[in-house]
Amino acid sequence: MSSRTLPLLFINLGGEMLYILDQRLRAQNIPADKAKKVMNDIITTMFNKKFLEELFKPQELYSKKALRTVFDRLAHASIMRLNQASMDKLYDLMTMAFKYQVLLCPRPKDILLISFNHMDAIKDFVKDTPSILSQVNETYQQLIEMYTTLCSGEFQLIRQTLLIFFQDMHIRVSIFLKDKVQNSNGRFVLPTSGPVPYGTQVPGLIRMFSCTGEEVTRLQFNNGGNYTAALREGSFELFRDRVTKLGTNMYSVSRPVETHMSGTSKNSAQHTKVNTAPNPLAKEELNMLSKLMGGLEVPKSGNADNGFRVNLFNTDEEEEEALMSRPRDLSYEVINIQATKDQQVNAELAKIMGEFSESGEQSPSSSSKGDDLLAMMDGIFM
């Protein structure tokens, strides 16, 4: 497992979230000024300096539920609100899109090019807002400094870490199904054609060498596909051609996007539910999450009357039906971090809960489930 994976996971998922929200804001004819405010507020929060300082620290990935909590908070960083079914669908689309990109990237290092495509698009969203643009540019520099010097082995470890994270997610997405890149069971179809990774040769030739290094024999074979040589390598510098289209906005052409739970995902959820033992890493995960969210400052939304709801479904009835039919284990209910007056509780947790109360979000009624962090996590994740 690579300790450098979290920033790339967050930025790429965040980029996909912005693509989807931009498409839905346009589809629902939200006034341009409100739509711009939503995008600006989310990007401002996403690239908050204190938040990114915690994000870029070497650390292991934490659970899907913890990551979902961060993105739920991020999606509600402005005047826009999402019901749980729409938030579930948003998160499904984000994760499946990035999973597809990770599977298709020709080389492990190309994950960085996918990240840069997302960053390029985010820069374009805020190109008319210099203060936010400077935040994005600063993060760009951090990515370049941290990742461009890594060796191929480290990128392979990052890719492997991401695939392990995504391995049980098999949500069917209408765009992928229509393009025949996803099967009905939610698994992706990898192509057997197209350009090979940059720096490699088209398969189909076996060369044999003598002990002195001289080529003595050549054998050709059918490679079973229609491969071509890569024309050039994508640039890892600012404002350059990435070559790959992975990580660009697939919603730029308007078409409806639906998600469906596959039988495989439902079965995975049932198998996961069997293991109800307390997580031995729960205490450490809560500490990481509290630090991460402690730096995630949500802008004040101002007048509540300006708020509006975005529906990722065609109608409210479809949204309600999706909520009722979704397996409970796959709804990723937002973690309720409880802070008590006990002195043993981390002070940063109290700060987080203060931010939740200030933003007007209502927390579900709950009883005391223990004063120490481990007992608190047992109550949250069981």
Automatic annotation (TrEMBL):
Residues 261-277 have a biased composition (Polar residues). GO terms for cellular component: cytoplasm; plasma membrane. It comes from the Eukaryota. InterPro entries: OSCP1. Transmembrane segments: none annotated. Residues 258-277 are annotated as: Disordered. Pfam families: Oscp1 (PF10188). This is Organic solute carrier partner 1. It comes from Perca flavescens (American yellow perch).
